[in-house]
Design a protein that fits this description.
Elements: H1 11-23, H2 30-37, E1 41-50, E2 56-65, E3 73-80, H3 85-101, E4 107-114, H4 122-138, E5 147-151, H5 157-170, H6 197-210, H7 213-218, E6 229-233, H8 237-248, E7 252-258, E8 261-264, H9 271-281, E9 291-293, E10 306-309, E11 328-330, H10 339-348, E12 351-353, H11 355-358, H12 361-375, H13 384-402, H14 408-414, H15 420-445, H16 452-471
Parallel strand pairs: 3-4, 3-5, 6-7, 6-10, 10-11, 11-12
Antiparallel strand pairs: 1-2, 2-4, 7-8, 8-9
Helix pairs in contact: 1-3, 1-16, 3-16, 4-5, 6-8, 6-12, 6-15, 12-15, 15-16
Bound molecules: nicotinamide-adenine-dinucleotide.
Nicotinamide-adenine-dinucleotide is lined by residues 2, 5, 151-154, 198, 233-239, 257-259, 296, 310-312, 332-334, 359, 362.
């Protein structure tokens, strides 16, 4: 792990500061705001695991459910040696606000296991995962209608497959059991497009931000993604896919920063080639044609249009924020910007697209996966052929009426046969675009909010408040 990470105060404190800033603009009663802000419950586990040499190791783990205003609660499981209870609570709170911002009907939650996934064998991780799920089941902290985990940093499809398998083993015959976790492999009840959803969602968010001529002009940027110079921190799930979709839409990913250092190539880097080189040599440094930057954090300060922190929290701080040259910060990671840095970015006119909106693509598509699992059918399966046949009948009628025929290209463009991936991506784009517009409108209506983050928090608080007020208090 790099030693160049800026560690400032806790993420929990930061999230609460962002919340308080927006809450002060709402006029909701103090008690209601306190209820929205508080983490409803945190469960701590300590369980024994036997390693491959037969030694017993005690593992610490958590599940925090921040808000039950909508059920189930939802949030990833993080595997990290450095994670602690406060971080889990902060991440659970971000999930509540994130789901509200993008109208996903879940409360916020988060889980974590204190383990370094990179230094363990797959067998050891499997034992830990299955034992963790066993603890969750015993305490009713997992289930399609109660709490639905997903991947986060350090976990992925493989771990989610172990989660669903363990849950099903402990709940035989439960019809909706597949919906107990999202982010599963497609062959295990997952949904096409989930793995890349957070990165794809980030790029939909960026495209929508870059489509606002007024906002781009104010920052000396051209409209659109084409030609934008992008620096990405992290080349894991989020960073890799964000880079891929940026490149596919005409932007140039000029630098990647990872723990061992960073690489820079103003002509643009290909993420697959970088991953391949790193796999082969053990480092991104020395990538052919690129300049190596030994101190990873220096890459954050490179001259670029868009900076995508997609690794860890607390990366942009009061310390390095004055030296950040990007005009747009697109928050791929959760909590990458401290409130001190946020203040500096505001003063510098940097457009910060906040985590509670920008990286919501993962939970949006998790919602689609959950719906798929509950309906027990793949999206598009029932209507695909029916829709295509209906389109063809309409084309034939037009041809008969006009007496002229469509070309093959026109026919192909018109006839829509929606498949699962197409449906998922269009649902994701619709969600990200609509939420961006809602946030921007709030900012225009409430200039005191001053930035997109505060406007997004305002929207989230108002939506959660409405839910609580409608529900009342029981008993
Ligand atoms: P991951 O484990 O797949 O990737 C993390 C990446 O960060 C790796 O490339 C790692 O090398 C890099 N990294 C770690 N420490 C670093 C350092 N000091 N400097 C530079 N790079 C460093 O994790 P992920 O799933 O991509 O998640 C990354 C962030 O995005 C986390 O904050 C996570 O909470 C957030 N997030 C993830 C998802 C998702 O769907 N996976 C959804 C929303 C938010």
């Amino acid at each position: 792990m790099a030693t160049d990470v800026f560690v400032s105060k806790s993420l929990e404190e930061h999230v609460n500061r962002y919340f308080d800033r927006a809450a002060s603009l709402t006029g909701h009663p103090t008690g209601l705001l306190e209820q929205i802000r508080a983490c409803n419950s945190v469960h701590t586990f300590q369980f024994p695991i036997r390693d491959s040499d037969g030694r017993i190791e005690v593992v610490r783990a958590w599940r925090a459910e921040h808000s039950h205003h909508k059920l189930p609660t939802k949030g990833g499981i993080r595997y990290s040696a450095a994670v602690d209870e406060s971080e889990v609570k902060a991440l659970a709170a971000l999930m509540t606000y994130k789901c509200a911002v993008v109208d996903v009907p879940f409360g916020g939650a988060k889980g974590a296991v204190q383990v370094d996934p990179h230094s363990c064998s797959a067998e050891h991780l499997e034992r830990i995962t299955r034992r963790y799920v066993h603890e969750l089941v015993k305490k009713n902290l997992i289930g399609p209608g109660t709490d639905v985990p997903a991947p986060d940093a350090g976990t992925g499809e493989r771990e989610m497959a172990w989660v669903v398998d363990t849950y099903m083993a402990l709940n035989p015959g439960q019809l909706d059991a597949m919906a107990c976790v999202t982010g599963k492999p497609v062959t295990q009840g997952g949904i096409r497009g989930r793995k890349e959803a957070t990165g794809r969602g980030l790029v939909y968010a960026l495209a929508e931000a870059c489509a606002q001529a007024e906002d781009m002009e104010a920052r000396g940027l051209s409209v659109g993604l084409d030609g934008k110079r992008v620096v990405v921190q992290g080349i894991g799930n989020v960073g890799y896919h964000a880079a891929k979709f940026c490149r596919e839409r005409g932007a140039h990913v000029v630098a990647f920063a990872v723990p061992e250092g960073a690489i820079l190539d103003p002509r643009g880097l290909d993420e697959d080639a970088v991953v391949e080189h790193r796999k082969r040599t053990g480092s991104v440094l020395g990538f052919p044609g690129a300049t190596s930057i030994p101190r990873s954090a220096d890459a954050l300060e490179l001259d670029c249009d868009v900076l995508i922190p997609a690794a860890l929290e607390n990366q942009l701080t009061g310390d390095n924020a004055p030296r950040i040259k990007a005009r747009i910060v697109l928050e791929g990671a959760n909590g990458p910007t401290t409130p001190e840095a946020d203040e500096i970015f505001r003063a510098k006119g940097i457009l910060v697209i906040p985590d509670i909106y920008a990286n919501a693509g993962g939970v949006v598509v998790s919602y689609f996966e959950w719906l798929k699992n509950l309906s027990h059918v793949r999206f598009g399966r029932l209507e695909r052929r029916h829709q295509a046949a209906s389109d063809l009948r309409l084309l034939a009628a037009i041809e008969r009426a006009t007496g002229s025929a469509f070309t093959d290209a026109e026919r192909a463009a018109f006839v829509q046969a929606p498949d699962e991936l197409g449906i998922v991506n269009s649902g994701l784009e619709e969600t990200m675009v609509t939420a961006y517009q809602e946030i921007r409108e709030t900012l225009q209506r409430r200039p005191a909010a001053q930035d997109l983050r505060t406007a997004a928090f305002l929207n989230a608080i108002n939506k959660v408040a409405r839910s609580y007020l409608e529900l009342g208090i029981f008993p």
